[in-house]
């Protein structure tokens, strides 16, 4: 059985897209959330010292690692496209985006 662990801060931001995808797929996962004051204690445990991190069976082989990378890259692409929409204050400009 596949096991997923999502590591992120206790807020929505970048981790929320992963949570929404899991919810839409009906996929169980472990949602590991850190408060801001806990982050420095765990930063060294994370790849590149950044989050969100999605762990999938700990990437047992290169194929699984590639699948994980594809999911993460897709989420990053979505976030990059959506951030300007959420940041735009002008409703007309937001509609254009």
UniProtKB/TrEMBL annotation:
Highest taxon above the source species: Eukaryota
Catalytic reaction list: RX + glutathione = an S-substituted glutathione + a halide anion + H(+)
Top-level EC class: transferase
Membrane spanning stretches: none
UniProt KW keywords: Transferase
Domain GST N-terminal: 2-80
Gene3D superfamilies: 1.20.1050.10, 1.20.1050.130
InterPro entries listed in its UniProt record: Glutathione_S-Trfase_N, GST_superfamily, Thioredoxin-like_sf
E.C. number(s) listed in UniProt: 2.5.1.18
GO function terms (MF aspect): glutathione transferase activity
Pfam families per the UniProt record, alphabetical: GST_N
Protein's recorded name: glutathione transferase
Organism: Rotaria sordida
């Amino acid at each position: 059985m596949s096991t997923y662990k999502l590591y992120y801060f206790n807020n929505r931001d970048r981790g929320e897209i992963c949570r929404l995808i899991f919810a839409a797929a009906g996929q169980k996962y472990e949602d590991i959330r850190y408060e801001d004051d806990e982050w420095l204690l765990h930063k060294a445990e994370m790849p590149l010292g950044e989050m969100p991190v999605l762990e999938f069976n700990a990437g047992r082989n290169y194929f699984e690692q590639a699948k994980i990378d594809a999911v993460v890259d897709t989420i990053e692409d979505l976030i990059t496209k959506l951030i300007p929409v959420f940041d735009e204050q002008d409703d007309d400009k937001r509609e254009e985006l």
